[in-house]
Amino acid sequence: MSIISFQADYRENPSGIPQILSKTEGVTLSVLCLSAGDYIVNGTIGIERKSAEDLVQSIINNRLFDQIARLKRSVSRLLLIIEGNPYTTAHEMHPNAIRGAILSVLISWQVPIIFSKDKKDTAALLLTIAQQ
Q1: What are the tens digits of pLDDT across the range 55-64?
Q2: What pTM, to 2 d.p., does this model score?
Q3: How far apart are CA 47 and CA 77, in angstroms?
Q4: Residue 32: is it exposed, middle or buried by C-beta count within 10 angstroms (0-12/13-18/19+)?
Q5: Which residues, 6+ apart, have CB-to-CB distance to 28 below 8 Å?
Q6: Which of 27, 72, 117, 123 has the fewest CB within 10 Å, making it most exposed?
């Protein structure tokens, strides 16, 4: 088994994902302050992780596209992971606004998006990405 290297932003600690990754055999994890994104996989892939609530809040606060822009300037390969269902959050945002933001990231920014159901699923996706 080859060594998989992750860098995780320290703000990801409350999610529990860094702890899941660090308990995985063959994984080295550094938790630090990343200038962009939430995870860097094997030094080459930048990943922004958004819970459903955070995604909607990022749209409301106009942070989403700034975060995507910073990540695009930092790495050549990037991905947005949306954890949970953004259409069922406590925020009363019209589904078309959420859909429009997601489509803008996909089409205008050309950033792939993948959905996960929870933190364990996100950790499994990160590990699969690292092994590709």
Answers
A1: 999 999 999 9
A2: 0.93
A3: 9
A4: exposed
A5: 3, 4, 5, 6
A6: 117
C-alpha–C-alpha distance, residues 125 and 38, integer Å: 14
In tens, the pLDDT along 21-53 reads: 999 999 999 999 999 999 999 989 999 999 999
* Contact residues for 67 (Cβ-Cβ < 8 A; gap 6+): 36, 37, 48, 58
DSSP string for 24-84? STTEEEEEE--SSSSEEETTTEEEEEEEHHHHHHHHHTT-HHHHHHHHHHH-SEEEEEEES
Residue with the two structure tokens 């950790």: 123
**Contact assessment for residue 97 and residue 62, using Cβ atoms and an 8 Å cutoff:** no
Query: Residue 1 pLDDT > 70, yes or no?
Result: no
Provide the b/e sequence for 99-109 (b: ≥16 CB within 10 Å). eebbeebeeeb
Structure tokens belonging to residue 29: 């994890």
